[in-house]
Amino acid sequence: MYIAKHLIQTTVSGDTSLITSFHYENGSGSKVYLQGNLHGPEIFGTALLIKLIEYLKENPIIAGTLTVVPQANPFGVQSQMYGLIYGRWNPQTGNNWNRIFSKQEGDGVESVLARTLISLAKDHEVVLDIHTSGAETIPYVFTSKEASDVLYPLGGECHILYDESDYYGAFDETMWKCGKESGKKVSAATWEASSHMTLDEKDLDARFKDLLYFLSSLGMLNKEEDMSLSYPKLFSMKQAQYLFSSQAGYLTWTKSVGEVIQTGETYANIYEPWSGEMKHLYAKSPLILLSKGTLQAVSSGQEIGNIIVL
Question: What's the pLDDT score for residue 229?
Fold first, then answer.
């Protein structure tokens, strides 16, 4: 194993912003790239990958090449105010940090970050970008149809499948697209593994078990015990949508993440401070609630969650 440091920026004070990568190799086999914390509030992936690095000290890989980047964005996690991490966007440009990967040319910090991460991942056959979603979520995966069978052992209740028409400049999409353009199969995915700004040990242990089983399925680690996973439900990117509140006020949920909600069912209550009344939010069509947003004081038209429209 060796560790590498990659300079992204020198600040006006002379400090440096770096990315640290951990590299493991043992003969031929799968080539896997793992990264976390591309968005500032999504700290779960960093802790999960550090658990893996600690595990590999006592249980080295048996075959293949593994690259681990626990903290893929040194800027996002430092964007903090009043006890909250808001670093989903570059405060200098307003750009989403996971929409910069079509902009690899130039000297801007976004281009430097994009080039660095792509260069670290480009020679790998499996690329997994670990994210989180909302204040509460079920684990789910964004990937291509061709990669779904490879990603199946990772678990997750559903896989949301993209194709060439769904390119938004995200990291996993870019690595998949680069593979197709070079004639190589790259199984790339975003894993929405937990919720924002939280590190729950039970959740970490559960997702760590999923990650070990996934790496074992690729022949990289000694086989973990069979987990008897059920095959995830498959949906298209068009079915994955944001949920917006039709009313303003203070929101409480009446449904749990993962639930199927039928047309006309109440999924949340809204308390109006100006009227002293409680209103209801109803499903306009059948849906699955993937995640709940972090805000509960909302205006009409405000995003409050992520859903699958059935």
Answer: 72
Final residue in a domain of this structure, among 177, 212, 231: 231
Same domain flag for 125 and 259: no
What are the pLDDT digits (tens) for 176-230? 999 988 899 999 999 999 999 889 999 999 999 999 999 999 999 987 677 667 7
Say how far apart CA 175 and CA 190 lie, in whole Å: 11
Number of domains in the chain: 2
The two tokens of residue 213 are: 């089983």
Triad 60, 64, 66: Cα angle to 5°: 70
Distance, in Å, from the CA atom of 34 to the CA atom of 129, rounded to the nearest integer, reads: 6
For 82, other C-beta atoms within 10 Å of its C-beta total: 5
Domain that holds residue 260: 239-309
Does 93 lie in the same domain as 171? Answer: yes
Distance CA 280, CA 282 (A): 6
- In which residue are the tokens 């690729």 written? 218
Distance of CA 36 to the CA centre of its chain: 8
Q: Would you list the DSSP string of 285-302?
A: S-EEEEEE-S--EE-TT-
Put simply, whether the predicted model's pTM sits higher than 0.90 gets the answer yes
Q: How close are the terminal C-alpha atoms of the chain, in Å?
A: 46
CATH number for 277:
2.40.50.100
> What value does the mean pLDDT take over residues 12-26?
95
Dist. CA 200–CA 154, nearest whole Å:
19
Say yes or no: 133 and 265 in one domain.
no
Q: What pLDDT score was predicted for residue 121?
A: 97
| Residue 208 and residue 247 in one domain | no
Q: What are the tens digits of pLDDT across the range 138-152?
A: 999 999 999 999 999
Q: Do residues 134 and 252 both lie within one domain?
A: no
Q: In this model, does residue 68 exceed pLDDT 70?
A: yes
